[in-house]
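Problem: given the chain below (792 residues), write out its structure.
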Amino acid sequence: MAGVTALTFAALCLPLLGAVLAPFLVRVLGANAAWLLALAPLLAFAHFASLLPVIAGGEVITGGYAWVPSFDLRFSWLLDGLSLTFALLITGIGTLIVLYSGGYMKGHPDQGRFFSFIFLFMGAMLGLVVSDSLLMLFIFWELTSITSFLLIGFDHEREAARRAALQALVVTGGGGLLLLAGLLLIWSTTNATDLSTLLQSGDLLRGNPYYLAILILILCGAFTKSAQFPFHFWLPNAMEAPTPVSAYLHSATMVKAGVYLLMRLNPVMGGTPAWETLLPLFGGVTLVVGTLLAIRQTDLKLQLAYTTVSSLGLLVLLTGFGAPYAIEAAALYLMAHSLFKGALFMVAGIIDHETGTRDITRLRGLKAAMPLTFAAALAAAISMGGLPPFFGFLAKEEIYAALAHADPRSIVFTLVAVGGNALMFAVGFAVALKPFLGPVLATPKHPHEAPPLLWVGPVLLALLGLMTAVFSATAHHYISSPTASAIRGSASVLEISLIPHVGLPLLLSALTIALGTLAYWRIDQARLAMATVLRKLGPGPDRGFDYFIVGLIRLSMRVTRFVQPGRLELYITCTFLCLAAILLVPLWLYGEMPTLPVWPRQVQIHEWAIFLLAVLGLFSVVIARDRLTAIVSLGIQGFSVAIIFLLFGAPDLSFTQFMVETLSVVILALVMTRLQLSPTDRRPLGQKMFDGCIAIACGSGFALLLMKATQGPFNNALTEFFNTYSKTIAHGANVVNVIIVDFRGTDTLGEIAVVAITGLAILALIRIRAQTERKLAENDPDAPEDLGVERP
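Solution.
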């Protein structure tokens, strides 16, 4: 097991190694670096594939390393059928995406940076699906949002790319914060810090009084990440990213994260009325909306993007449906969708790369020039349409076996699934057939077959869609059944094959094909009809996002103007008001006011003199007519305190106080010589009284707090610790110095660094001012005028 742990950790680190090496290898090898870089995900894929027999045998592999043991936080992973399937998809398709990127981005000046982003994205998603720790899951969850932001906005010089990246980050990042709240509720109410413990808790989470709150928070995180209605709008806009990103994003990575989370939590959160209502409802609406919007598009990538939205809705619907075969159907469709959607996106990228356009209305007759691409596209479309002999057919048959029941709820969702699958059938074959068949149309670039780096990915994925269906028994044994078992939380065996379910599921499949063929035949008219409907409906969620951002900016500006009007006096007043409240309110609210002591009679005459000196200094500050007198008088307070420290046996502290007060008075006096020194106070009497009350409240609060602290029992644990270890550890006899220099050495270093940086900044400003004065004296027209120096 130790060997498996070490190899798993190495497999998780391989994408990060690829991110580091990519820029250097691309600089040396150019586009051919893709062949070498693809070894990183390929080796990770090989490791995870080697675990298939173990996982198929019903075992669960856990491992990791302690991070913060006192809080039971670990960098840990959980490998079962679900996480292993996702790991294989991420690393396997990731290998093909790296190769595809080498050909697609060939000659791009930032190809090395692009590879680094892809590998970081791969590592974040891989860490998410194998994480056992709830905290690590959330960290990787947010890393997928950040890395996708970098990839979507890769062409940052285009405004559309920047907007799409920002939109994806805001939507998924906002959902991530809600997910964090849900995970913290799970943590605090169940004491489970990892998924393996949570999955063994039975009905503990379902019976939790905060179950509904946890469910809503988890769904918000999952729905935003997996683009469920009404958060679906960010995913098609993410098509501003280069096509390798789109293919990876839609087939195996980020958008599947929300689906993964719902499947992962199904054993402990599923089966409740809320779960079986919310998931099918939002999933069904997303399925319908996605397919209808896909029909509207003419851009190949946008057509595929909206069908991904609908497919994600179908997966969410199946995960929460709660009927027999629903979980099995979700497991099958998860695999089938990854294979055919990855291939179709790569095909769309090849068409764009080799013809210069993705507009389906401008593409015809490419079959002769691109036969291999056409074959891969047709195979993927057959699987997407749910036709034999591809794996998509098995998934569609199992979907109808799960949904086709006689109750009204099942009938409604069956009709939704049939309509959605029919429209996806039409869009899939439109992408695969219309650009390749018919008379040749002129394109911006002369079309020809793509180089191997581009076509190897879609061809292999299309072949996998065929082979997994032909050898379905093997695929079910090693992948489908373990995946469904992990989602269900109990053993599940899949037996669906190319021999379809006889009865209603087969009739529904035939109906889907008939409706899909009709929609494909009239797809141009359907596109115009959808455009008319959308135009009458008005702005959708995408435009609503813009309104939201504009409103948020306006609100933030108004709040900023209210809380930060630019008056230092107001800031100081608010600060001291809050300080007085913090000091006094808890003491009064919780009955912790100290007992006022009787004034000690042992105060000696020289001590009275020091107190009197401090009071006279305070009075001098209040009545001073100019700032310089107030500064000097203020120093009297510090010197009086320093003398008190000296009399009570703290010479080191007294010396420090003397130095601080001397430097403060000198520096303030030097600064004030650059300003107008009189008059010192223009406030009206009412303002002075208000400020005086605040000052008295703060002073009284500190006095009462210190009195309360001194009236309690003294805990000398720290005193004994420092007295015991000052010599043995720090080799110093002066305990105060040892505390400052050794035990609190980092604090002292930070304070020194702050002072040094401040001094350097002041020195730079002084030099700039001196240079400005010299230039103004020489009547230099390039001298700045905003440093408070007037021209002669």
